[in-house]
Amino acid sequence: MKQFFLLVFISLVAASISFGQTKYQFKVDLNEVSNDKLRVELAVPAIPKSNKVLSYNLPKIVPGTYSIYDFGRFVSDFKALKKNGKPLKVTHPTPNTWTIAKAHKMKKITYTVDDTWDTNLDNKAFEPCGSNFEKSNYVFNNHAIFGYLDGMKRVPFNIEVDRPASFRPATSMDRVGGDEDTDIFEISNYMDLVDAPVMFSEPDFTYINVGAAKVLVAVYSPTGKVTSKFIAGEIEPILQAQREYLGGKLPIDKYAFIIYLTDGVSASGAYGALEHSYSSFYYLPEMDPANIAQTIRDVAAHEFFHIVTPLNVHSEEIHDFDFINPKMSKHLWMYEGVTEYSAGHVQVKHGLMPIEQYLDVIAEKVRGAERHNDKLPFTEMSSGCLHTHKDEYLNVYQKGALIGMCMDLELRSLSSGKYGIQNLMADLSKEYGKNQAFKDDELFDKIEKLTYPEIRSFLNTHVAGSTPLPIKSLLEKVGIEYAPVKMVKEKTVGGLENALGVDFGTGSFYIEKPEMLDGFGKSMGFIGKDVIKSWNGVDLNLQNINQVLTDFMMKVEVDDPINIVVNRDGKEKELKSTFQMAEVERKHAFSLVEAPTEEQLQLRTAWLGDYKTATEGGSK
Q1: Within-domain flag for 555
Q2: Which of 325, 419, 387 is nearest to 70 (CA)?
Q3: Distances (CA, A) of 461 to 335, 450, 470, 489
Q4: Is the same domain home to 499 and 572?
Q5: pLDDT tens across 386-402, in order?
Q6: What confidence tens digit (pLDDT) does each residue in 445-483 have?
Q7: How far apart are CA 12 and CA 153, in angstroms?
Q8: Does residue 6 belong to any structural domain of this protein?
Q9: What angle in degrees, to the nearest 10, is found between the helix axes of 355-369 and 339-349?
């Protein structure tokens, strides 16, 4: 390993001598954006005479997305210019590459880049990894705008942005210069540039101190309903809990939550967030603050935990990411799975979520994992997630989280409660850190060395192998029992999530599968082909249905009046009723054992800390 990094160091020195130039110098002007297109100018680093041909690249894929988006698709009018302004010959052999002849004479590159959020191109990029150019807000995921020259990913970057004077940048990057309407950022290499998105808008910023770390919460809300102060108040308890969860000190000194809320429809069809080392970018639907709170808490907890992995624990494939021909790591179970597990575990362990709710989270993960191929080894899925096993990727948030839980329980059992996955991730962070990568095939060896042979056997059997996870037997050790099926009374929207169909031509919703309605839905009087026009006085459409039904679920109480208007056989009909809880069948239910043994209680407390119950509302 020492030899590997010595070779990297030598290659970097050689590269700096070879190219001899200090930095890329990019310049853009947000005031001149037209038709969602941004003009990019680059003063290139000095190129030695030996480089007769050189390529400029934008990424095919970026870390954290596990999807191919070909960001070069959004570039047009590309020119490479000599010192006298005359163009050099450029070919465009792939969607993401421009090859420049006589590159040693090149002094400047110019091109136009379209935003990804508002495009007619197919294969829409997931918004948290794309770009947005509108008068009220500009989002820079830098890989969608700026590129790099072959062999020069580790040359520093200088980014100068002219913007409206009333706007401010929200980013984890260091602002090194500028004035009232200009920002200048400097960053050491292309990997770090890709790792630091920026949002320019009228500032709504709130800062939180989490130990020694300064955390920025920046929000763009088109209606102003949700503010950074509100979100900061919602996530601060989790951030403080995460600091304690990680041993009392964070491995960072700064962080930025960059949150864009939309009152429109996601072009990609998805909402969510993308993690970075010192920030995370969120694209979420605008809704009432009370309704968005838990979503923000859950997503923020997940993304913030990425300061552990992959920031401080990652493989060579991530450390020197190939943006054009990427090779995927086998360890998504750790990068995403353990992160997702920790995001829920920290909430119950630090009293922010009652244990009964956490058991529902576990059950939902089991139900989600059931929709995927349980016989596919997780390491194989990870390495093939771009192509062969692309449809299985979302299992990282389901089975991946369950792998994290089972490892935690196994470690606690083997150590009499003294050592868990928190300790393991801390030890791996000490072994590696931000600047040192592990070899993919050696991670299991390292984990065995830090823990127990039984953990290596667990990884071989359940992660690299196809044997199902021993969820039931491990939870029994902490006094939690499992039921394959359980009938429960719950608030529902009548089973519409399974019964509704969508007519995209008219933007309307209709009862496509009446057999999927639950007891409450059937009592409302819905029948097949009913077109739902309004819900409690609010007209439904593609843009608002999620918010309307979410608001309903948050506020409704038993026996509250309900008035729904449907179109039935071409005529409007009112369906009037009162709200009732529905008895629904839940697969894979977990509950606390009524009379746990002392050993079970001791191990459960070691696992979940001074957890709370929903009935007691306090510490147990």
Answers
A1: yes
A2: 325
A3: 19, 19, 11, 37
A4: yes
A5: 999 999 999 999 999 99
A6: 999 999 999 999 999 999 999 999 999 999 999 999 999
A7: 10
A8: no
A9: 160
